[in-house]
Amino acid sequence: MTTWITICDTCKQDDWTPETHSRPHGEDLAELVEAQSEGREVRTRRVSCLMGCSHGCNVAIQAPGKLAYTLGRFTPDQDAAEAIVDYAELHAQSETGQVPFKQWPQGVKGHFVTRHPPLPANDQG
Questions:
Q1: What is the pLDDT of residues 3-19, one digit of tens each?
Q2: One Pfam annotation, family name (predicted)?
Q3: What is the pLDDT at residue 30?
Q4: Other CB atoms within 10 A of residue 103 CB
Q5: Are 4 and 56 in contact (CB under 8 A)?
């Protein structure tokens, strides 16, 4: 199963203004995560808005049949991108999507916003 990193490319942090920034912070983070994930066990995609504006910059880590996570409050820099992709690879390697805390990259600690259980495998719920 493929683990996906879904990156909100419209996230803007509190310091964003049209006078000081030419594009949203989310685009900066998306480019960094995409570059970091090349040749790794994960895939990336961009979406316009994960509706976590008070937690920007946001990403979701998801795979069919596994726990899914939303993480936010990232600074769009190389360290954040590395931690996000490293965590997503651990998610990919986990049977359930749950990664033991002691294995979390330091750069994702304190960034978890939500956890979602996997969808039922059938319509029976």
A1: 999 999 999 988 888 89
A2: DUF1636
A3: 98
A4: 11
A5: no
**Which tokens go with 10?**
């419209």
Domain count, the chain: 1
In terms of residues, how long is the chain? Answer: 125
Q: Which region holds residue 79: left if phi is over 0, alpha if psi is between -120 and 50, else beta?
A: alpha
58 with 50: CB under 8 angstroms?
yes
- DSSP state letter for 117: P
| Cα(87)–Cα(106) distance, integer angstroms | 10
d(CA 96, CA 103) in angstroms, rounded, equals: 15
97: domain CATH number?
A: 3.40.30.10
Residue-wise pLDDT tens digits, 71-105 = 999 999 999 999 999 999 999 999 999 999 999 99
CA 10, CA 57: separation in Å to the nearest integer?
9
**DSSP notation for 96-112:** SS---GGGS-GGGTT-E
Instruction: Give pTM, 2 decimals.
Output: 0.93
Structural domain for 7, as ranges: 3-116
12 in a structural domain: yes
User: Does residue 110 lie in a domain region?
Assistant: yes
CB atoms within 10 A of CB 94: 16
